[in-house]
Amino acid sequence: MHMANIVLVRIDERLLHGQIRITWGKFSGANTIIVANDDIAANPLLQAPFKGAAGGEYTVLFRSIDQLINSINKADERRRILILCKNPTDVARLVNGGVTFKEVNVGNMHHNSERTQVDKNVSLSPNDIEAFKSIQNNGIESYIQHMPESSKKNIFEYI
């Protein structure tokens, strides 16, 4: 079976912003950024700022989680794909849908009433923890890593 060339999967509530383009895009060698989010995929008005944030260097695509599951393995291998999700639940949906990649890069997950802060940029709810367990059960580890030069720390060190 043809596998897509996924170079990075990142969880970042802000999705596509300048830091992604400058640091993670360059570091990963991506040429295509896929924002995987049901709400944004369904609303072109929400897509414009993300296209702007990517500059002209990347192809930027918007897909719902189900669309991405159904289309990712049709991607040309010349596409080096960086997938951005807002939360681990969406990543777990991708994994359970058969999307294959090495690991999950955990960036920003903001604090809210359901979440407990575990790191300066990462707060987790019980649902988030279940999603990370589901990802791990598929043989994929999730690491908090703020910048490419930062050390990687397995999410389960914090739980």
TrEMBL record:
Domain (PTS EIIB type-4) ranges: 2-159
Gene Ontology molecular function, alphabetical: kinase activity; protein-N(PI)-phosphohistidine-sugar phosphotransferase activity
The entry's keywords: Cytoplasm, Kinase, Phosphotransferase system, Sugar transport, Transferase, Transport
Keyword Transport: yes
Domain of life: Bacteria
One Pfam family cited in the UniProt record for this chain: PTSIIB_sorb
Localisation: Cytoplasm
A GO-annotated cellular component: cytoplasm
GO biological process: phosphoenolpyruvate-dependent sugar phosphotransferase system
Protein name per Swiss-Prot or TrEMBL: PTS sugar transporter subunit IIB
Taxonomy of the source species: Bacteria, Pseudomonadati, Pseudomonadota, Gammaproteobacteria, Enterobacterales
